[in-house]
Amino acid sequence: MEMHEICLSHSGRFHVEGGISLQEVLSVHNLYKSFIGVKALNDISLSISQGEIHCLAGENGSGKSTLIKCVSGVYAPDSGKIVLNGHEYQSLTPAQAIREGVQVIYQDLSLFRHMSVAENIAIEKLRFENRRIVSRNEIRRIAAEQLEKIGVSIDLDQTIGETSLANRQIAAICRALAQDAKILFMDEPTTALTKKEVSRLLNIILELKKKGLAIVFISHKLDEVFSVADKISIFRNGFKIGDFNKDELDEKKLSHYMTGREVEYPRYVRKCKDDRVVLEVDRLTRKGHYENISFKMRPGDIVGLIGLLGSGRTELAMSLFGLNPAHSGQIKIDGKTVKIKSPMTAKKHRIAMLPEDRITQGLFMERMIRENITSSIIDKVAKNKIFTDKKAENDISEQTVEELKIRTPSVETVVGNLSGGNQQKVVIGKWVATHPRVFIMDTPTVGIDIGSKAEIYEQIHKFADQGMAILFISDEIPEILANCNRVMVMRDGRCIRILNEEDLEKPDAEKLISELISTRAEEEREEAVP
Amino acid sequence: MNKIRKLAAGDINFAILIALTLLAIVLSGVFIGDKMFTVANIQAMAYQIPEFGFLCLAMMLSNLIGGIDLSIIAAANTIAIFTANVLNGRWAFGTDGAARIILAICVALLASILFGLFNGLLISRTSAPSLIATLGTMTLYRGIGMALTGGSSVGDIVPGFSYLGKAKLLGIPFIFWIFIIATGLLGLVLSKTTYGRALYLYGGNPVAARFSAINNERMCRSVFLLTGLFAGIAGIIILSRVNSAKVGYGDTYLLQTMIVCVIGGIHPNGGKGTVKGVLVAIIFMQLLSSAFTIMTLSPYTKKLIYGAMLILVLGMNYFINKLIQKYKTR
Amino acid sequence: MKIKIRDRYRAILLIIMVFYSLFVGLINPAFFSIETVFDLIRTSSTSLMVVIGLLLVMISGGIDVSFMAVALFGSYTTIKIMIAAGIDSLAFAFGLSMLIGGFLGLINALLINWLKLPPFIITLGTQSLFHGIMTTFIGDKSFGAGVLPSCLNKFGQAVLFSFQSDNSRVGLTASVVPILIVAAVTWFILYKTMIGRGIVALGNSEEAARRIGFNPSRIRLFVYTYTGLLSGIMGIIYVAQVNALYPNKLVGDELMVVAAAVIGGTKITGGQGKISGAILGVLIIYLLNSTLILIGLSSSWNDLFVGAILVVSIAVSSYQERVKNRKNLIFTE
User: Best label site of A75, A145, A287, A513, fewest CB within 10 Å?
Assistant: First the structure.
């Protein structure tokens, strides 16, 4: 069936011409897969056609990655059928999957930093064909060919290490195309891109769709990706809840289906009466990362910070914590200008940060809970500041465990054995033990089960009530709306809008924020609106 | 049940080590007991342990933070050369007798701290991998020694100094006391102080340590300063026993200190291991070394055994860990 | 014209070498002679041979400090056999030594694959193990020029082209031939074959390499065996040049070769390194070693200078890497 005979409607969906169904690239029938103690896939059935843009939505652990791994040959399903291009499989090897045109782009892109772009594109194909000899010309030819398929041109001779993130993603896509991909899986493709780059990516995807490639995204939030999706399959706890088209879903419904609950998170209202400014940031700039950021925080403020990665939000957070010192501008604590050049200084000024990656940045996975909780206050739980005081350690740890509702048999449990939600609570507890006045939280609820999420929100509100100022970084607009009394929106390194309590009360707040971070028009640079 | 499992897993290496040491004692008792366990020989071992022991402590510290310090032996020798030069009058600034000895020791300690600090600064300021950085400083320190001596040994030491190497306190060599006290102090610091806690955290996960507002740079500097210090003390002890200093002395010690650390339960990735394990390992290696000398094995054969030991111990650790994993997931 | 950073580094090395040579030549004009070049090549030939193998190992993300012991083992065993059996064939010498070296390298690879522990520690162990086995079971005697097969000395003295200078004939040692061949073959392997790209891929990211279909264990088998082969060749070249067989030479000089590779721009973390860089690194070290005496410093100053250069080069390249990482908010230590 020739793809260019299909006409595209306004919404970008395919029609069926003359009653002939589009060729199915992939269909999955009654797939089951479990691991020790976990039923990862329960009776999953799904079908994807040529030229279809499909989205798999669901929280961490809902089964979407497991499905992809089954289809790409990494896992063998326990039972069920996988049909690729009309060929039936009970399970397949990675080589078979590649031969059927299955390509997966993982979030880390799996590229080789010190090899050229051209080589990264071509190497998988050449390896697959079992070539013994490789020629530079052929590598370039293959690479150039793929770039042409999507109408993009990037420097082929640069090493990947020297290339921008967006171009790396293009290289990854080209690598998949070089293998004659018929169906391309992309894991959270837009998280690391700027506005413009997201636009470019979407255009590329539409190009690929025109050529008949089926594209499957993994996503867990409504974003640009949804706007081009033909179908969205929502997963929860290993089950497929259903297939929807994008008009049937909004943030609330999506969250409802993904979590199974009508969760109405209680809105945070600032009760603290102290209006003295704790933290003031004045025209903070770090060249290449962010520019002219200014805002104020009072005790009891939970200020949301939202923006795509690349908007400068993580860079800003790290600057406030001393890991990425600013080049110009000022940071003032209680009115006094301070220079924060290291986390030690930040801690001294009672600024705390919950890092983005709790496993490598937040926790000492092989050590016990009490050692983790006291890891930022080692000097405090000591006799004479020199000798560790086991009793004091235990006291603080047990107190923290109780306050934050960390589920564990004892404070001697190794942190690596806790669930994601409990691990995150340990990291929170570690910093709360330093009695911070400003607590920066970078996406605190990523990959955490619903129950723990609610508990963490509750805790955060309580801290704010007690006078802490919290900078809450998140990608999920409902989460931001529920937990913040003010919101800062960043884009391309600038703060483009700060929404206050009144703005957030308005019914269109959600839409407004969504538009602010994801408007697609090519605009001129706006001045920061304080 | 879980507690027993945890205990077993953590201390199984130590248990095996103790078993090996006892085995070594028993076997050597059976076969060469008449020469091995004489008062003279035990004293000899007590004299030999300290210099080797300090080098092992240095290596252990660098391993605990996930790195390795290749420069310890070069540093020890070069510092011994400095000390010898003070002691034989060349750099004595007119002092003599006890004053000269004190000056010499001060120079040695100062130099040790400088050498260690140089390593620490190099690694913490540039984030150079410790293997490569200390490869460089090893060459550099050795080079300083070579430039000063041209390869020949420095002798002519004030006699009072070698007295230090021979003196006994309550029947036990003075230098052995120093070693035991240092080991005890180190053990105390590592297990009971805030510094020790921070060291283990830093060694186990330097990224998380940074994000926990632990001063990584200071940690790195201080640890290498300590390794330099221990290496220097080893140098002083070597000088007091051998009565001369020379580039290249003890080059074979490098492999042996690594064996000690591996058997002693220090994980090369950092964050795991205790002083007591290393201490037993040191004693074990000394028993072996003495036994080999008594059996008059050639230096080549010794090398063979040490090399084989390292591989075997690594292999054994691997298997034991695999068994423990299997046991855990049952 | 865009000069890439890595090329810039090697260009700077070359420029420093040139300036240094000019400096030396000014002080001691005897330096500016073709003999110097030939001499430099001759003395560095053994290190050049092994650094090429070490380069591959380091690019793959590993390291090997047992290659000297392997070279010694291979050559010693081979020559002992040749003496005992009366064989006098250069091809045999190279062939058998290569085989033995390759076999020992294979053992290294097997241990590293199997034990999954830092290659530095494992090869430190095998260094002693191999040397110990050789001296204990094969022999620990020295052999003088009289008993050695004559083909060795012939090769050691052979020159490619020579001319009269002052009172003696000087020539370019024939040892360059195996070196050039090995360099060319290695270049071909590294850049033109899939296994070579696999080596680079492995050094970049084992996980990603695996996903593409490379087999890390097999690649390691290759690089360590290859290094072993080259070490075997080197052992024979060494004996040929020295014209005597000792059981305790070579071992102990490994770290110089590693230093040379590092100075030449090879990263210990793997994924990058150039043959020309490694060769340059070796030449710089030997240049220093042989010229310090010409500017009035005895050979005991060699280590100091090499050490200083090593430290500076490590500091500079590590710091550059760190600045790049920090800019991308990567904190790895």
Answer: A287
Q: Which residues 261-300 on chain C approach chain B with CB closer than 8 angstroms? A: 262, 268-269, 298, 300
Number of cross-chain residue pairs from A and C with Cβ atoms under 8 Å apart: 65
Q: Are residues C211 and C317 in the same domain?
A: no
Nearest CA in chain A to C191: A134
Alpha-carbon distance C96 to C79, whole Å?
A: 9
Q: Quote the CA–CA distance of A511 and A491 in Å, as a whole number.
A: 16
Q: What is the pLDDT of residue B330?
A: 57
Give domain status of residue C40, yes or no.
no
The domain containing residue C55 runs over which residues?
48-252
pLDDT, mean over chain A:
84
Number of separate domains in chain C: 2
Q: Name the one residue in this structure whose structure tokens are 């058997």.
A: B263
Smallest CA–CA distance, residue C266 to chain A, in Å, is 12
**Secondary structure in 3-state letters for A272-301:** CCCCCCCEEEEEEEECCCEEEEEEEECCCC
Return the H-helix or E-strand segment holding B253.
helix B253-263
Nearest-CA distance from C162 to chain B in Å?
35
Q: Which of A246-255, B15-24, C33-42, C296-305 has the lowest mean pLDDT?
A: A246-255
- Are C242 and C309 members of one domain? no
Contact A31, A45 (CB under 8 A): yes
Q: Which tens digit of pLDDT belongs to each residue from C11-47? A: 887 888 888 888 888 887 877 778 888 888 999 999 9
CA atoms within 13 A on the CB side of A479: 24
Query: What's the confidence (pLDDT) of residue A421?
Result: 87
Chain A's closest residue to C188, CA to CA, is A133
Task: With respect to residue C64, please indicate whether it lies within any of the assigned structural domains.
Answer: yes
Which of C252, C285, C304 is the last residue in one of the domains? C252
The third-level CATH classification (topology) of the domain covering B12-323 is: ABC transporter involved in vitamin B12 uptake, BtuC (1.10.3470)
Alpha helix (H) residue ranges in A434-508: 450-465, 477-483, 501-505
Partner chains of B (3+ C-beta pairs under 8 Å)? A, C
- On whether both C266 and C243 belong to a single domain, the answer is no
Within this chain, do residues C102 and C174 fall inside the same structural domain, yes or no?
yes
Q: Are residues C61 and C131 in the same domain?
A: yes
Cβ contact B139–C127 (<8 Å): no
Tell whether C165 and C224 lie within a shared domain: yes
Residue A502 has pLDDT above 80, yes or no: yes
Task: List, for residues B116-171, the tens digit of each pLDDT value.
Answer: 999 999 999 999 999 999 999 999 999 999 999 988 888 877 777 888 888 888 88
Query: Is residue C38 assigned to a domain?
Result: no
Alpha-carbon distance of A341 to A338, in angstroms, equals 9
Give Cβ neighbours of residue C161 (< 8 Å, ≥ 6 apart).
C171, C172
Alpha carbons A280 and A296: distance in angstroms, whole number = 4
- Of C203, C219, C252, which residue constitutes the final position of a domain? C252
Does residue C43 belong to any structural domain of this protein? Answer: no
Same domain, C235 and C271: no
Distance of alpha carbon B228 from alpha carbon B207, whole angstroms: 25
Distance CA A393, CA B262 (A): 31
Provide the residue count of chain C: 333
- Average pLDDT, integer, range A437-441: 96
Q: Is A429 on the interface with B (CB under 8 A)?
A: no
* Residue A369 CB contacts under 8 Å (≥ 6 apart), including other chains: A397, A401, A406, A408, A410, A411, A412, A413, A414, A415, A418, A426
- Could you tell me the end-to-end alpha-carbon distance of chain B, in angstroms, rounded to an integer? 13
pLDDT at residue A193, rounded to an integer: 65
Measured between alpha carbons, how far is C64 from C127 in angstroms, rounded to an integer? Answer: 9
How far apart, in whole angstroms, are the C-alpha atoms of residue B167 and residue B278?
26
Do C154 and C237 lie in one domain? The reply is yes
